[in-house]
């Protein structure tokens, strides 16, 4: 009896798969979506350089000529200048610069024991005499009206009539004379190649003669005034009327 039940079970078990194959078939699935594009591959190797183009005889393809590089042409003419642009706005003021370094300490031309002093040199002397001044010799004077420096040796010597440069620089010298006879006076100096002569001839009136010069002097050079002969008559040279000569000079810079 037990064997019979086992057989029935076996039959049922084998029928189920046969019935499923007929009624349980699945449909085909849909195609999947396209994947994302892949990354670029690595650059390929550089190709070999082509051969140099060679111009052949005979007909030439114009398309090939246009692809060939020609020689550089000449420089063209300059074009017309364009209109001037508008002026830009003024920029903001820049920052102040840094102060400069102090300059070197100045040195005075003269030293009087109390620091540097301003260089000064000036004189004015008057000759009042009835005799005619001798030719070719420095004219001498009475006490000078002005003669600097006030202390020490003077720049102008009244007894010799010489001005001796103590301070190198540029000077101005001038003279004036008044007489009733013809007068000729020279401004002479070691700084001059030739003397500077001035003459005024007698016209039976008081004769006024003047002259001046600017000289650049070095230390030790002298300047003086002297009379010279030109058209004076012997009577004029012996004249005993009053005659006056003023000789002046001063440092410009």
Automatic annotation (TrEMBL):
Ranges for domain C1q: 116-253
| SMART domains linked to this entry | C1Q (SM00110)
User: Which residues does UniProt assign to the signal peptide?
Assistant: 1-20
This entry carries the following GO cellular component terms, namely: collagen trimer
Segments of skewed composition (Gly residues): 103-112
Q: What keywords were assigned to this record?
A: Complement pathway, Disulfide bond, Extracellular matrix, Glycoprotein, Hydroxylation, Immunity, Innate immunity, Repeat, Secreted, Signal
Q: For the region Disordered, what residue ranges are annotated? A: 23-48, 71-112
Give the main location.
Answer: secreted
Query: Which Pfam families does this UniProt record tie to the protein?
Result: C1q
Taxonomy, superkingdom:
Eukaryota
InterPro entries recorded: C1q_dom, Collagen/C1q_domain, Tumour_necrosis_fac-like_dom
Give GO BP annotations, semicolon-separated.
Answer: complement activation, classical pathway; innate immune response
List locations, semicolon-separated: Secreted, Extracellular space, Extracellular matrix
* Alphabetical list of PROSITE patterns matching this protein: C1Q
This chain's protein is named C1q domain-containing protein
Q: Native species of this protein?
A: Champsocephalus esox
């Amino acid at each position: 009896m037990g064997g019979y039940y086992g057989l029935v079970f076996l039959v049922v078990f084998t029928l189920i798969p046969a019935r499923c194959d007929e009624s349980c078939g699945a449909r085909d699935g849909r195609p999947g979506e396209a994947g994302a594009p892949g990354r670029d591959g690595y650059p390929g190797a550089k190709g070999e350089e082509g051969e140099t183009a060679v111009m052949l005889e005979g007909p030439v393809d114009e398309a090939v000529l246009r692809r060939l590089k020609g020689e550089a042409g000449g420089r063209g003419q300059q074009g017309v200048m364009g209109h001037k642009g508008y002026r830009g706005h003024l920029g903001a003021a820049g920052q102040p610069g840094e102060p400069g370094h102090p300059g070197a300490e100045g040195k005075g031309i003269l030293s009087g024991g109390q620091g540097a002093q301003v260089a000064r040199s000036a004189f004015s002397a008057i000759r009042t005499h009835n005799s005619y001044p001798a030719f070719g010799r420095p004219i001498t004077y009475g006490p000078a009206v002005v003669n600097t420096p006030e202390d020490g040796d003077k720049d102008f010597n009244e007894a010799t009539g010489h001005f001796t440069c103590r301070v190198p620089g540029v000077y101005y010298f001038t003279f004036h004379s008044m007489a009733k006879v013809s007068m000729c006076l020279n401004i002479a100096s070691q700084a001059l190649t030739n003397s500077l002569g001035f003459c005024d001839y007698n016209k039976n009136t008081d004769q006024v003669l003047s002259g001046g010069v600017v000289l650049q002097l070095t230390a030790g050079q002298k300047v003086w005034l002297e009379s010279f002969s030109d058209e004076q008559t012997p009577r004029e040279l012996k004249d005993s009327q009053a005659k006056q000569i003023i000789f002046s000079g001063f440092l410009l810079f």
